[in-house]
Amino acid sequence: MHGNPIRSSVFKSWRVMGAAAAAAILVGVSANASPLSDAQIAGIYIQVNGFDIDTALLGRSQASSDAVRSLAEHVAADHIGVRQAAYAVAEKCGSSPILPVERNAAAIDHDKTLAKLLALKGPEFDKAYVEHEVAFHRAAIEAVKTVLLPAAKCPELQAHLRSVLPAFEHHLLQTEALRQASRRSS
To answer: Is 35 helix (H, G, I), strand (E, B) or coil?
Structure first.
């Protein structure tokens, strides 16, 4: 891979897309930003889950590898369930999810990432998708632990965020294992 400038360029592009995924999660979600309300936390959390649902559904339909397609299907199903639960939690907390205006940039970044993934086919798509999922889940876990959970005031929202962390961490372990397996087979 090191000697082939085209493959090196493609690999660099995958890493950039992974960084863009992390940025899409963290835009407007910072420990230094003004305090978030429970409604904003729910809105951000629902938005981020929606981003991963979109990407996972794309992975399910476009992956060339059965392992990648299976991972994408699992991630999509889990995040659909989490998003539905998040709406129910927001209702229990008596808040309607809203997005801080800064989250518009996250949606734009997500759309750009989807467009880049849509342009790829075969093993290139698979590798880029897995790299995206690794970066995405790392950033999501970090955002939940360091920003959303500490800012949440409603006990039900706090409990929900704590309860989903192990599933997000499991998705990260699955995607990292898949990335390692694909690197060994390349």
So the answer is: coil
Q: What is the mean pLDDT of the segment spanning 27-33?
A: 52
CA 33 vs. chain centroid, Å, equals: 21
Dig out the tokens for 110 from the structure.
Answer: 């997500």
Count Cβ atoms below 10 Å from residue 84 Cβ, excluding itself.
12
Q: Helix crossing, 38-62 with 5-26: angle to 10°?
A: 150
The CATH class, in words, for 36-185 is mainly alpha
DSSP character string of 79-140: HHHHHHHHHHHHHHTT------TTHHHHHHHHHHHHHHHHT--HHHHHHHHHHHHHHHHHHH
Q: What is the domain partition of the chain in residue ranges?
A: 36-185
- Residue 183: what pLDDT? 83
Question: pLDDT for 90-122, tens place per residue?
Answer: 999 999 999 998 899 999 999 999 999 999 999
Residue 29 has which token pair? 């979600």
pLDDT of residue 12: 44
Nearest 5 degrees, angle CA 4-CA 114-CA 128? 30
For helices 155-185 and 122-143, give the axis angle rounded to 10 degrees. Answer: 150
Read off the tokens for 119: 């342009």
